[in-house]
Amino acid sequence: MKQFITAKLWSRLPEEHHYDGEPTEWVKMTRPGENLHSFLEGPEFDKEGNLWLVDVPYGRIFKIDQDKNWSLHYQYDGEPHSIKQKADGNFILTDYKNGLLEYDGKWTFKKLHTGYKGEQFKGLSDVTIAPNGDIWFTDSGRSSLSDPTGNVYRVWGNGSIDHVLGNVPYPNGIALSPDGKLVYLAATRANAVWRFMADYPDPKWPMVGTYIQMSGGLGPDGLAVHENGHLAVAHAQAGRAYVYDIFGDVVAQIDLPEGLWVTSLIYKENRLFIVEAQTGSIYSAVIKD
Fold first, then answer.
1. Closest C-alpha to 233, from 257, 206, 209, 251
2. Among residues 126, 141, 130, 145, which one has the least CA distance to residue 233?
3. Comparing C-alpha atoms, which of 77, 17, 114, 94 is closest to residue 264?
4. What is the pLDDT of residues 115-136, one digit of tens each?
5. Of 42, 44, 51, 144, which is least packed with CB atoms within 10 Å of its CB?
6. For the chain, what are the domain ranges?
7. d(CA 173, CA 223)
8. Could you write out the three-class secondary structure of 159-226?
9. In 3D, which of 85, 5, 8 has the Cα closest to residue 50?
């Protein structure tokens, strides 16, 4: 039976961390005429249970401890869109401005890739790390249905990079099935979630299908997969998230009581944490099996 859930506020960016300077170029491009105090993305729980977030336009990395205390962990000249922790404890960040980065969690950044075969990335969006350690990430830039030129890349354990998909109308959230065999991709401007095999037999591009066709809002943004295989989807600018089973049927609809800019989400056991960028909030909801 489909669950209808209203998420509860878990924590909100304290006013002391609200940015009050002039709009950056990213803000002028994506939210013209607005002054944003933040734009939160890319939640990740570390091994100690702290929740990490990135603030896209202002190059900030926040850490929220288990008592819900926020700290500005680091700020740099960048536009980070997502952060994920590797098995060795280091973090991988997708940065719209700087490319694919590795961060040791203290003070050292390393640029892993800034482009592919001599061409700069369009502007990176999301990242996920496979069970075997491979890094999958999306390169959306300003692609859309009128310019379907977004890309998906895979970095293997030896550091080599493969161009997995081209011609995507704004590839955004990306996640893998628990066994790492299936890749889920949010094609935001097509308002759809695509699916394909991680290790595909095709000689050039994987065979891709539409797994979920959505409507309304802007389209799917962040994705998260539960250990039972269910896929959670943040519905950008619609103020809600959905959970789908392995057949693509809706298991749950989670509505937020405030804010429309649902950017990303993450599971912690059966609790889904949902990031809403308009108010700088994290909501949570318990999803029944």
1. 251
2. 126
3. 94
4. 999 999 999 999 999 999 999 9
5. 144
6. 3-286
7. 5
8. CCEEEEEEEECCEEEEEECCCCCEEEEEEHHHCEEEEEECCCCCCCCCCCEEEEECCCCCEEEEEEEC
9. 85
Angle at 152 between CA 193 and CA 124, to 5 degrees: 100
Contacts 24+ apart (CB under 8 A), 89-95: 89/47, 91/44, 91/52, 92/127, 92/129, 92/135, 93/42, 93/54, 93/127, 94/42, 94/124, 94/125, 94/126, 94/127, 94/137, 94/138, 95/124
pLDDT in tens, 174-185: 999 999 999 999
Please give the CATH superfamily to which domain 3-286 belongs.
TolB, C-terminal domain (2.120.10.30)
The pair of structure tokens assigned to 283 is 């909501």
pLDDT of 30: 84
How do strand 70-75 and strand 60-64 relate by DSSP bridges?
A: antiparallel
pTM exceeds cut of 0.70: yes
Average pLDDT over residues 94-102: 97
Which residue type is seen at 177? Answer: S
